[in-house]
Amino acid sequence: MHREKFIERVLLLLALSSVGSLALITIFIFLEGFPLILSVGLKDFILSSHWAPTKGHFGILAMIISSVLVTLGAMIIGVPLGLSCAIVLAEFSPKRLKMVLKPTLELLAGIPSVVYGFLGVIWLVPLIRNYLGGPGLSLLAGSIILGIMILPTVISISIDALTAVPDPYRDGSLALGATRWQTVSRVVLPAARSGIITAIILGMGRAIGETMAVIMVAGNALQIPTSILDPVRTLTSNIALELGYAAGRHREALFATGIVLFIIIMILNLSATLITRRR
Amino acid sequence: MRLDPHLSQGLVKTLLWTLTGFTLLILIFIIADIAVKGLPQVTPAFLSQNSTDMGRAGGIFPTIVATAYITLLAILLASPLGVGTAIYLTEYTREGWATRIIRFGSECLAGVPSIILGLFGFVLFVLKLGFGWSVLSGSLTLAIMVLPIIIRTSEEAIKAVPQDYRTACYSLGMSQWQTVTRIVLPSALPGITTGIMLSIGRSLGETAVLLFTAGAALRTPVSVFDSGRTMAVHFYILAREGISMPNAYGTAAVLVISILLINIVAYTLMQRMMKRYG
Fold this sequence. Notes:
The complex is a heterodimer of chains A (279) and B (278). Chain A is built from 13 helices and two strands, in the order ααββααααααααααα. Chain A has 279 residues and is mainly alpha-helical. Chain A has a two-stranded antiparallel sheet with strand order 1-2. Chain A is globular. The two termini of chain A are 40 Å apart. Helix content of chain B is 77%, strand content 1%. Chain B contains eleven helices and two strands; from the N terminus they run H-H-E-E-H-H-H-H-H-H-H-H-H. In chain B, strand 1 (51-52) and strand 2 form a beta hairpin. The chains are: A mainly alpha (279), B mainly alpha (278). The interface between A and B is large, with 82 and 82 residues.
């Protein structure tokens, strides 16, 4: 009895490791970055786009806008493709094909982001430069690559949401004389809505937090883009590009950038969790 | 005007299948391009020689060692924590506020982007604790990254073990811990292994975390305090600085093939487990 109690305590301690890590991460990012936000002022930090950290200017507006735009672009490309795949695999494809394609698509989630970025530089960037103009390294290139990268996330979670809809729903609709597509669009999709929204939000989180692929294809210019062919620098790229040599207030500013990113991602994750729980 | 439902179904189906085909083509293209351009570079010498001239010539041996070293250490650190958490959540406690907080923490941790983990590992392990850019700093940060994966898969695996097994143990007079260690864990082993394999796959491909915690020294690391450049980081540097495209492709091929193989093994194990208890 005594022994069992001891084991339970030890296991509880182990179980607190994930919460503990999360707390440590939050504490350290805030400890390092928050003093700078205080001294610069929140308004000047997130509403100015003057970033010259060695001269004491710490405005990250251009990067916030770039991050949001790249992520929106990724959604515009990734969500229709991903949802189509999920609907086809869950509702229209023969079972055999689904058995092969679903694991294949999920395996592709394992391809590292640097590989996506690399292929983007080799294939996509020259295409954009030659056919659409601009430097090629651009908001558009970043959006396309991120859009492809979020596909496995969107597809896999959407398929699970669609498969979770009970078959009697479909049978009922089909028995009333609806076509398969009418059934899918008016019965199955609405029933799976919260799961699909979760898939999209998690895809969004993945896109806005992605770093290496974006650094490689988006061009990293510090500006508010006026066209999708402009090069952009996202919040994540900025941290990764400058952390290697930053010191003092400059480094604090990168952690402060991290805080902004962290808050955005946590809001996205929280809403995904809440939506899933409501079901 | 209303479109005939069968006609509109036909149109929609064509569109959906086209988009699906397009998606698959993109993904096939990625694998094919890496395989076609990368595999010819992968010779025994490429795998076993040191890199020279910043990676322009020679092989990728030091990066293979660094990758294995950092990944294994991370898994050794994360597995007991992850499996322990899963045992606690499934066997030792009822659903309540404690499990809710633990699950929530693990879900949030899974969503933390790697660049934030990189920042955290850099400030805590590299600077504050003075481990420097090292195998140790990299492994510790990676361990935090893969912890949620191990927790989630282990929890699912342990939950899949039929309740009868436990009841039978208790009726034989076994204690809870004996039940867990002798019956539940061995039965859940394939599922737990799946989680560990997936974590290895995820670690192999990680770049942002390791660039800022393990550094990029192109030497074979020996001590845990040596800096080590993993294959993914090496590939990133080769590609980004335009050092050598053939070597970049070769490294990418080794990396992608290892990850795919590991994920396939993980998937097969999971299928087997599902078949047994599903």
